[in-house]
Design brief:
The structure is a single chain. By secondary structure, this protein is α+β, with helices and mostly antiparallel strands. It has one domain (4-78). Helix content is 15%, strand content 27%. Strands 1, 2, 3, 4, 5 and 6 form a six-stranded mixed β-sheet that branches. A hairpin with a 5-residue loop joins strand 4 and strand 5 (47-50). The termini are far apart. The relative contact order is 0.19.
C-alpha cells in the first residue's frame, strides 16, 4: 500500500521515493504514461525511482509517474519579480528567433 503524504504547498497527496543517487523525490501517486520517472517497490518495501533511458528502458515491474514538482500548482505559478529586477526571458526569446 502506498503511504501518501500531503504536499506542504498544495496539500495534494504525494508519494516519496528514493532515487538511485539516494535523494528523495516526491512523485504524483497515480501512474501517468506521460511521466518521466519510473518507480517500483524494492525488496524492503521502500519506493524507489529512476529516470528511464534508451539503454535502460522501463521494466515490467516499474510504472511511469510524474515528479510532483512538475504538477504542483504552487511551483508552476510564476512569482512576481521584485521592484527594480528585469526579466531577461522576453529578451532571450526575441534574440533567438530566426
Amino acid at each position: 500500500m502506498k503511504r501518501l503524504i500531503p504536499c506542504r504547498d498544495c496539500r495534494r497527496p504525494v508519494l516519496w521515493t528514493t532515487t538511485e543517487a539516494g535523494k528523495r523525490l516526491a512523485v504524483d501517486p497515480d501512474p501517468d504514461p506521460a511521466g518521466n520517472t519510473a518507480i517500483w517497490r524494492d525488496g524492503t518495501g521502500a519506493w524507489r525511482s529512476r529516470r528511464p533511458t534508451a539503454d535502460l528502458p522501463i521494466t515490467g515491474w516499474e510504472r511511469l509517474h510524474k515528479p510532483h514538482v512538475a504538477t504542483c500548482p504552487s511551483h508552476t505559478q510564476q512569482l512576481a519579480l521584485p521592484t527594480g529586477v528585469t526579466s531577461l526571458a522576453e529578451h532571450r526569446r526575441r534574440r533567438h528567433r530566426p
